[in-house]
Amino acid sequence: MIxxxxxxxxxGTAGLKATQPRLAVFMELLRSENHPTADQVYENIRQNHxxxxxxxxxxxxxxxxxxxxxxxxxxKQGNKRFDAxxxxxxxxxxxxxxxxxxxxxxxxxxxxxxxxxxxKIENFTIQEIKVQINGIxxxxxxxxxxx
Length: 147
Description:
Shape: globular
CATH superfamily of the largest domain: Winged helix-like DNA-binding domain superfamily/Winged helix DNA-binding domain
Strand order of the largest sheet: 4-3-5
Number of helices: 5
CATH architecture of the largest domain: Orthogonal Bundle
Number of strands: 5
Number of domains: 2
């Protein structure tokens, strides 16, 4: 977990003012591992920050994405989910529980990169490749493990 001072520096470096609402949303997103919706972020911070409006949380999250400090993650529900983990990783999505779990696998990343390096994609420059595996957990209470 990063400290407030570091979060302020990261926001400033991205061209965003480190306002109290922006810091609260950014810190909550950094803390979260479950790829929350804007409503979930709002519910998690509103007790300690009662002056933050729900609409402000939505706008702040969109600004964090635009600034490259967060990603939007796809869900079958159609709602926006957010991820502050900017490292190369993929996602596993349970269609029953709607959990989104990070999945790190260098072999998979290299396999996908090699595939697209060999293919000729005209009029397109790949900037990022993300894999999302959709399915249903056998046990909804446990994390997915790939062995």
